[in-house]
């Protein structure tokens, strides 16, 4: 803040009972903005020199759309480049690490879904599509990102996996398409659930069944054999799947709490330390 006095820093106080408030913080930031066009990036991102100009140019040409530019990984081969698409192509999963949107569209949609701990950007893009505003690729708006070491990637994958069931329940019309284009969302959780079942079968019936089940992981290994760190790739997938399985019952418990809890006024003040720690 001292180095960049022209930046408007907003102190944010974390509301009680919520550990992750990324959606809330972004909504606060947009509410404080005076521009009719909004651009998003994340901590750890390094925008190209003309990134903002490219975002604004795209929004000027297509004001009734949301745009996302390519996100190039600098340190994680499994993640590679996100939204590596032709200019103007439809973006399947929007990402606020590199996004631009007209303020009018943001207000029309009511901002980000604050019921989500993570994945609020994907939810935002889906809801935009549902009301007739596509999310398109701004090819010229390049963003580089460092995802962190292997441990950080697995922990992030676990958190995202834990929020995926809520994301799917919140957008039932997109859930099937999501699973079709990202089948590992369901396949890896099924594999984890099958481990104790196959172990019981191995103990009481056929000893070789658990070995066959473990060897099923050879399919993604062979399919992704070009990955430089295949072990980390599998661990990231399994971490996300574990989070998904934990997130399924959380959907129902949260729904039950919302039905029985009395309305609570929102607190919308922020501290910088909380803001920094909430982002991956």
Uncertain segments: 259-280
Radius of gyration: 21 Å
Distance between the termini: 20 Å
Order of helices and strands: HEEHEEEEHHEEHHHHHHH
Q: Which strand-content bin applies to the residues?
A: 5-15%
Mean pLDDT: 85
Q: What does the main sheet amount to? A: 4 strands, mixed
Structural class: alpha/beta
Number of strands: 8
Instruction: Name the helicity range.
Output: 40-55%
What global shape is seen?
A: globular
Please describe what this structure looks like.
This protein is an alpha/beta fold. The chain is built from eleven helices and eight strands. A four-stranded mixed β-sheet has the order 1-6-3-7. Strand 4 and strand 5 form a beta hairpin. Helix 5 (150-170) crosses helix 6 (172-181), helix 5 packs across helix 10 (230-260) and helix 7 packs antiparallel against helix 8 (209-215). The two termini are 20 Å apart. The model is unreliable at 259-280 (pLDDT under 50).
In short:
The protein is an alpha/beta fold. It has helices spanning 22-32, 51-61, 103-109, 120-130, 150-170, 172-181, 184-204, 209-215, 218-223, 230-260, 272-278; strands at residues 37-41, 45-47, 66-68, 71-73, 81-82, 98-102, 135-137, 143-145. The strands form two sheets. The protein has a four-stranded mixed beta sheet with strand order 1-6-3-7. A four-stranded mixed beta sheet has the order 2-8-4-5, with no helix packed on it.
Question: Keywords for this structure?
Answer:
10% strand; single chain; 4-stranded mixed beta sheet; alpha/beta; globular
